[in-house]
Specification:
Distance between the termini: 37 Å
Bound molecules: nicotinamide-adenine-dinucleotide, ketopantoate
Shape: globular
Strand content: 15-25%
Number of helices: 12
CATH superfamily of the largest domain: NAD(P)-binding Rossmann-like Domain
Strand order of the largest sheet: 5-2-1-6-7-8-11-12
Number of strands: 12
Oligomer: single chain
Structural class: alpha/beta
CATH class of the largest domain: Alpha Beta
CATH topology of the largest domain: Rossmann fold
Largest sheet: 8 strands, mixed
Low-confidence stretches: none
Radius of gyration: 19 Å
Number of domains: 2
Length: about 300
C-alpha cells in the first residue's frame, strides 16, 4: 500500500525520504508536469542530515494521475490545504486516510468537510526542516510528531511504517489539545518576534507583553474547552523562549523572506474563536491588528 505525499517542500520531503529509505512505497504528488519534469531532472529528493547529503529517487506523479489513493499525507501550508485536497478528492478510495500535518487550526476542519468519505488524522510536529533549493531539504531539528483522530481513538496499523522509518512519534488520545497548545505558544511568541524584529530570545526584553498575552490565551483555551492546554502556558512560553533564544521563529523567517504567513490559522483563528465565544481579549486583538498592518505594509497577504 503506497503512501501518497502532497507537498514536496520541507516536511513532505523529510517524510518521503525517510519512508522510502525504510522500503515503504511512496508516491510524491507534484503540482504539474513542469514540476514533475524538474523533479526527474534533479534525480529525486536530496535529504541533508548532519552535513551528509543523500539522494532518494522517490516515485512521483501529478494530481491528475488516475492511481487511487488510500493514504494521503498532506504537507502543504495550511492556506493551500483545502485546494490541494479538492483536486485529489476524486482519487480517494472509500475509507481513505488523510494525515494532515498543517500548523495551527482551521485548515483541518475545512479539509475534513470536503472529504466526508475519508478518515482525517491530525498531526502536530516539533521536527524542523528547511528547503535549501528545489527538492533539496535539510533536516535541521530532531523532534517529535503527535498524531491523533478526535473522532476515532483507535491507532492505525501503519504507525509501524513510521517506526520503521525512524519518524519519532506518538499516537495522541487528545490531538486537539496538542494543536491548541502549539497554537497558543505560536501566538504568544511568533507575532511579537515579527513586530519587534528579533530572535525568540529578544522577547526576554518584553516580559509584560508576554505575560498579558499568555493570560488572555489561557482564558481563551479555557473558554474553548481546552483547559488542559492552558495549564502552565506562561511558564512553557518562557521555557521555549529560553530554549530557542538564538532562533528566528517560523513566522519571522516567513516575513523576512517575503513569504506568506499562516496568520489566519494561528492568531487569526484565536481571535475568531474569541469572537465566537464573545470573549474580549484586548491584547490578543491589538496584536492581531498590529501584525495585519505590518504584513500589509510589506505587501504580504494578510490572510
Ligand atoms: P513548504 O512550503 O516547505 O512545503 C509545502 C509544499 O507544498 C511546497 O513545495 C508547495 O509547492 C507544495 N504545494 C502546495 N500546494 C500544492 C498543490 N496543490 N499541489 C502540489 N504541491 C503543493 O512547507 P513546510 O515548511 O514543509 O510546512 C508544511 C506545514 O508543516 C506548514 O503548516 C508548517 O507550518 C508545518 N510545519 C513545518 C515545519 C518545518 O520545519 N518546515 C515544522 C513544523 C510544522
Ligand atoms: O514553533 C515555533 C515556531 O517558530 O513556529 C516556536 C518558536 C518554537 C514557538 O512559537
Amino acid at each position: 500500500m503506497s503512501w501518497h505525499i502532497l507537498g514536496a517542500g520541507s516536511l513532505g520531503s523529510l517524510w518521503a525520504a525517510r519512508l522510502a529509505r525504510a522500503g515503504v512505497p511512496v508516491q510524491l504528488i507534484l503540482r504539474n508536469p513542469q514540476r514533475l519534469q524538474a523533479y526527474h531532472q534533479a534525480g529525486g529528493l536530496t535529504l541533508v542530515e548532519q552535513d551528509q547529503a543523500r539522494l532518494y529517487p522517490v516515485a512521483a506523479q501529478t494530481p491528475d494521475s488516475t492511481q487511487p489513493i488510500q493514504r494521503l499525507l498532506l504537507t502543504c501550508k495550511a492556506y493551500d490545504a483545502e485546494a490541494a485536497v479538492a483536486q485529489l478528492a476524486p482519487r480517494l478510495v472509500p475509507g481513505a486516510e488523510l494525515i494532515l500535518l498543517q500548523n495551527g487550526l482551521g485548515s483541518q476542519d475545512r479539509v475534513a468537510l470536503q472529504v466526508p468519505q475519508a478518515r482525517c488524522i491530525l498531526a502536530s510536529s516539533t521536527e524542523g526542516a528547511f528547503r535549501e533549493r528545489d527538492f533539496r531539504v535539510v533536516f535541521a531539528g530532531h523532534g517529535h510528531t503527535w498524531l491523533g483522530d478526535p473522532l476515532d481513538l483507535q491507532p492505525p496499523a501503519w504507525l509501524e511504517d513510521l517506526h520503521q522509518a525512524g519518524i519519532v512519534h506518538d499516537w495522541s488520545l487528545d490531538i486537539l489539545s496538542r494543536l491548541w497548545r502549539k497554537l497558543a505558544l505560536n501566538c504568544a511568541i511568533n507575532p511579537l518576534t515579527v513586530l519587534h524584529d528579533c530572535r525568540n530570545g529578544g522577547l526576554r526584553d518584553h516580559p509584560a507583553e508576554i505575560a498579558s498575552l499568555c493570560a488572555e490565551l489561557g482564558e481563551l483555551l479555557q473558554r474553548c474547552g481546552q483547559g488542559e492546554a492552558a495549564h502552565d502556558l506562561h511558564e512553557e512560553v518562557l521555557r521555549v523562549i529560553q530554549a530557542t533564544a538564538a532562533n528566528y521563529s517560523s513566522m519571522h523567517q516567513d516575513v523576512s523572506q517575503g513569504r506568506r504567513t499562516e496568520i489566519t490559522y494561528l492568531l487569526g483563528y484565536a481571535c475568531a474563536a474569541a469572537q465566537r465565544h464573545r470573549l474580549t481579549l484586548p491584547h490578543l486583538q491589538a496584536l492581531h491588528e498590529r501584525l495585519l498592518a505590518h504584513l500589509t505594509a510589506r505587501g504580504l497577504p494578510s490572510h
